[in-house]
């Protein structure tokens, strides 16, 4: 299937099959490298009761934050949620279930899921609330907790360039969680800034091989700056 043309012509087609109650993996870190148009399409579709796995939940009015507006997210598995007032409100009101996970553990959960590894041990989180109810084993005289891998029904990913076959290149720090999410979805959808002809991508520069990708779409992006810092 490596030579199969994976381009789709609309965002509705890109997310065909996404249903209520599914688990959604989303790439991005803050507002960097987020699949913003795919998120907007999920809002348009009105898909509900989602479990969303992502480093964070965007901000008020942009990124994954827009899915909170109509309460489309049932549970959020994240490592950082400090930039979203609506998220905080829904959490405190008991309207949103949240599973906070150390950032490196979250990354490894996705990587392991994509690699077919069901679980792993890590020292991160031992002795904290993160370890409550989890098996503990000692390796090299240090306690480690047992963490389960994560896979999802859909993965939504933001790339820079892709070819027709779904080979993807990310740009700079947009390599954050996108390559990890791409491998761990049963259906992986990637939106990119440019789709090039087969053979135009240097094979050694490809970050996500097309074998992991089911659908590719080319979009236009706002690319907001989350926090602007100026030096006087």
Automatic annotation (TrEMBL):
The record, for Gene3D superfamilies, names:
Glutaconate Coenzyme A-transferase (3.40.1080.10)
What keywords is this UniProt entry annotated with? Transferase
Gene Ontology molecular function: CoA-transferase activity
Taxonomically, the superkingdom here is: Bacteria
What family does the database annotate? Answer: Belongs to the 3-oxoacid CoA-transferase subunit A family.
Sorted alphabetically, which NCBIfam families does this protein's record hold? pcaI_scoA_fam (TIGR02429)
The protein here is known as Succinyl-CoA--3-ketoacid-CoA transferase
Record organism = Oceanimonas doudoroffii
């Amino acid at each position: 299937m490596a030579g199969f043309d994976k381009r789709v012509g609309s965002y509705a087609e890109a997310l065909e099959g996404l249903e209520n109650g599914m688990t959604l993996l989303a790439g991005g870190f803050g507002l960097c490298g987020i699949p913003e148009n795919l998120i907007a399409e999920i809002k348009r579709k009105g898909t509900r009761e989602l479990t969303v796995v992502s480093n964070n939940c965007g901000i008020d009015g942009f990124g994954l934050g827009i899915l909170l507006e109509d309460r489309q997210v049932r549970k959020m598995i994240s490592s950082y949620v400090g930039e979203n007032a609506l998220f905080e409100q829904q959490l405190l009101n008991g309207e949103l279930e949240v599973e906070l996970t150390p950032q490196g553990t979250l990354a490894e959960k996705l990587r392991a899921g994509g690699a077919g590894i069901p679980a792993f041990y890590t020292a991160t989180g031992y002795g904290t609330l993160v370890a409550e109810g989890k098996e503990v084993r000692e390796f090299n005289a240090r306690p480690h907790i047992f963490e389960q891998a994560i896979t999802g029904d859909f993965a939504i990913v933001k790339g820079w360039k892709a070819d027709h076959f779904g080979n993807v290149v990310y740009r700079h720090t947009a390599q954050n969680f996108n390559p990890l999410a791409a491998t761990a979805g049963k259906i992986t959808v990637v939106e990119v800034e440019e789709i090039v002809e087969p053979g135009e991508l240097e094979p050694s520069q490809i970050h996500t091989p097309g074998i992991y990708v089911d659908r590719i779409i080319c979009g236009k992006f706002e690319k907001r700056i989350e926090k602007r810092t100026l030096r006087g």
